[in-house]
Structures are given as structure tokens and as C-alpha cells.
Amino acid sequence: MRKKASIPFSEIISESFFPVSAWRVTSVSMNPIPRRLASRMPTVLFPAAGIPIRMILDRGVCMGVAFSFWVRVSGRSSRVLWRCDTATAEVCQFRGGRVWRQQSTGVMTFFGRQWRIFRQVLCTLVLVAGHCGIGAGASAPEGFDRANGYLRDGAYAAAIHEYDRLYVNHPDPMVKAKSLFFSATTYAGYLKRYPEALRLLDRLIEWYSDSPYAEDALFAGGTILFRKGDFQRADRIFSYYLKRYPQGHHADGAVEWLESIRKKRSLPVEDRRPLARLPSDIRVQLFDGVARARVRAPGGLQVRRPGAAWQAVKKRRVTLRAAASRVVSNIPDMQGQRIELKGTDGRIEISGRMYRGVLQCIGTGGRLQVVNRLSLESYLYGVISSEMPRTWPVHALKAQAVAARTYAVYMSLKNANLPADVTNCSGSQMYGGIASETAAARMAVNATRGQVMTYDGYPVIAYFHADSGGHTEDGVNVWGPPALPYLKGKADPAGRIAGIGPWTVHIPLKQMETDLRQAGVHIRGLREVSVVRRSPSGRMTELELTGSRSRVRVNGNRFRLAVGGKTLKSLKCNVTIDGHTACFRGTGFGHGVGMSQWGAKHLAENGHTYTDILHAYYPGVRIRTY
Fold first, then answer.
1. What is the CATH architecture assignment of 126-262?
2. What is the pLDDT of residues 568-601, one digit of tens each?
3. Which of 207, 446, 488, 602 is 20 to 30 A from 529 via CA?
4. Domain chopping of the chain, boundaries
């Protein structure tokens, strides 16, 4: 081979270098390199394939390996072979050499005998990669975008509800098939609820057999059965797949799965094993999509590229901005797709707020994403007093600490392949950095150090809210299935006694119409809002909106989020129309699922311990210390 060019890795993979209209990735191969070099691989997206390379690398790093990538890219007038080497962070262009099989589907294919096993594991990426853009057409309803947002926020049940809504309401059979497939992969890939996933995949194959998703569904069903240990049925599924789709884009994977089953080869397949230990660090998204950021460290600043050594800088203030998919700073020779900064004394400031740990600045599409990586317990110091007043009883604060730690651990396990585990807003957990730390918060965190709620050995989704209004809500009524046994709605006398009390809010219909339109609910001339269905807790689960020419039904939680969760405090309310204004009168604050913070306060004031409080609001869980 003859080397033709060498340019930085982040530029060659960036959208600006390979416009989608001109280029597309046709195949990828990989070769092992030392694990210590893995972190030099920047987080990038192949324009056509849509799978984050970091996602693939993280799967590999878990197995103790990293890779260099051989990418074949076809353009308008030529075909070029590039070697993307994580060791040198460069991409070298070659011509000639080995001719690889071209993929017409845009899905990446891996080669190399020593990586047969890993390729099989990678094939199961269909269980999560579908949400990263594979197969998503430009005409897909915006509901898929909303579902993707729910997945990024960890609201998996809400994503499933959105897919179900698309399946029921959209007339296009292709959209219905896609909705079934994505719903099934969410059940399997995020919630590990394999029976529900298989049921949906069976329905897709039976009712939408002409859809291209039927092929993916059949292959995904085989991988799920293998994960469950049902090798006999998996064998039948993969055999049938090869018979029905002999030239299918999963054909090679099906062959190798069959070889593994029949040779009883052990595979490093993901399973739902009990939690062995807590993650040491947590990654908190502070900003996403900002143009620039100013960073300072009172005790001195250090900076590095991922995997490199820390370098002390003389500047006490650093300005960062994004250029395409690169982070550019005012420090000489310090730019790249990702830059890390920290203070020599462990503190670092951005946008006037001080944080512990490391700041990771990531360039994506001309914007910056800023992530704070710090120890799990230090993170909780900044959460507890952001979520609950420091003057509240000790056991209420301890209950909040265990719930917040459990939620953070759950999200870190589920979002391991994403740039961040949680965000710093109410959609995740409020986190205010060092300024939010109090002596009471540190005491509650230290006193419960390492304690997590589990169900069947796995961390629970420890949702909590401000005030139940006297009755907690069943999670399935807010976000749809699956119904989780520890998130069942029930009467909450403590919440009724100690809550914030009744409230009234007036919302102009014109403003409500605008808010709904921005959330994807289109209604013109809104003049009536009526309740169609309520849950046993009394919350509105479905509303009907009447406009000048049409009527639209909308899920209650979606309606509340559209008009604003702080504006419409709870769905446990009644609504009347007064002229051009909707008047809501109700009780409670928040979605109502899980622990009521005001209820926890009342229980603690009346002699209940934090473990009593947690068992009251999350029935059936076990509190374990790791």
C-alpha cells in the first residue's frame, strides 16, 4: 500500500469533512491494540452508519481490548480506504489493497478471525443502536425524536409509551413496524424485560412481515433468546433467519451465533447479574449545546487530552469554544474533540459555579457539551440540599441520600455508553456543585455511604417527587409499561398531612396552544380542555383538547410537561375554562411516582427511620451496603 495522506482523526470523521450527501461508510474492520491507548479514541459519529464509535469502543474496553479501524468510504467519484488508528489519533488514506465486501444498508460490518466472538456481541448492538439513527428515515414522525430524548434522560417507560402511541395512532405500516421494533429493543436493551420484547418482536414478524424491520426483529429475537440461555430456541431462530434471509445483512452474524451455540463456545454476553460494586465516578452533564465556556481554577489549572498526562498551565482562566467537532482553547496546542480540565486543589469553576472533580469538554456539531466527572459520594453532596431543605429531619435527608444514590447508580449502569450518566436538572436530579453542599447533606451522605436499594439484586429506578397530594402514582400510569412492582401507587397519609396544600394556576389558552405545539401536539383555536381518564390516585392520565376544527387526545404526563412541570404542579387536579383561560385547581407537586419528599419529612418527624421511609415508598426493595 502507498500512503497518500495523514490528517487528524477528528477531522476525517467529522460531518464537515465527509458531507452525508457525498460520502458514506461502507465497511469497517478492526485490529487489536493495547488497552492503555483506548482512551485516545475520540467520540465521533460515522455520517451514514450512525453508530457512536465510543459506544463500540466502550464495549471493547470492557473486554480488555481496544481497536484500530479500517474504514472504506465511497464518494461521488472515487472509493478510498482509510486506516483510523487510535494509537496515533490519525487517519491515513490508502489506495488499492484488499477489496472488502460493500454494505448497502449503512450498517457497519466487522472482519477479522480473532474478533469473531466480539462481532457476535456487537450484533446485539441492534438492541440499542436502533435509537442512534440506524434505519431512521427523514420522514419519520417527530415522536421518534421525543422517544430518543426520553431514552437519553433515562425515562425508558416514557419512551416505550411514545412508541406505543405511534403504533396506535400512525396510519403508516412502516411506522407501526418501526415503533414495535424500537419498543421491543427498549424493553430488552434497557429494562432487560425479555418476555415483553419477544412478544412485540413476534407481533412485528407476524403482522408486518414485508417490512424491513421484520428481518431485524427475527435476528434480535435470536439474540434475546441466547441472552436468556434458551439455546435451543435461539438455534431454531437463527436457522430460520438464514433460510428466510440467506443474503440478509445479519447473515454472517447468524452463522457465527449458530457456530457458537453448536460448539458450546462461551460468549461474553451481557446479562443481568446482581450488582457487584458501586461505580467510583459519576458523569454529570452541566451544559449541552453552548457556544463557548470560560473555566477557572483558584488554585491553579491542569489540562489534558483523554489518555494523556496532565499539564499545568499558567493561565488561571481558559476560554473554550467549539469549531465543527473540535474543542478549541486559548492554550497553545491544546485542542481536540475532547479536552479535560481540573483544578490542582480539586475545585474548578465554570460559568460562575464551582465544582469538584474533572470537567470534560466535548465538541459536537459546532457546540460544546460540558460534563463534570467526580466521585459518586461527592456528587451526592451537591444533590441532597438541592433536592431537600437542609433544615429537614435527619432521617428524611438520609432517605433522600439513599434514593439519590440508587438513581445515580442505575443511570450510570444504563448510560455507560453515553457521554454522561445524569443531568443537573429536575428531569434527572438537581445538582448545584460545591455551592449546594451543606453540613447536613454531607452528614446524610456519609451516614448512608454505599447504601443502594435493589430489587432482585439490581438497582431500582428510584424516582421521587416533592408532594404526592395524599396518594402516590403507579409508574405505569405516568410513563406506560412496564409496571414495576416497587413503583406501585398507594394512599399516602403522610403526604396528605404534610404536603404543600391546595393550589390554583391560570394558564391562557393561547399560551397553552403554543406550548403544546412546541411539544408536538398540534391544535388550532384551543377552546376546551376536558379530562377523559383518571388513574386510581385521581390524576389525569388522558385529556381531550378541543380546537376550532379538531379534537386531540393527549397523555396526561405529556400534557403537563408541555405546559411546564412547575406551572402545572401536578395532574391531581381539576380543570375549568374561564373565557380565554384554563383554571387548574389541585394538590401535590411532581409526577407522584416513588418517594414523596414532604411525606418523608412527616414520617421522619414522627419517629420513622430512613429505612422505614424507603420501604414505605418502594415496597419490596432491599437496602444493601456495597
1. Alpha Horseshoe (1.25)
2. 999 999 999 999 999 999 999 999 999 999 999 9
3. 488
4. 2-111, 126-262, 281-391+417-447, 463-497+592-625, 502-586
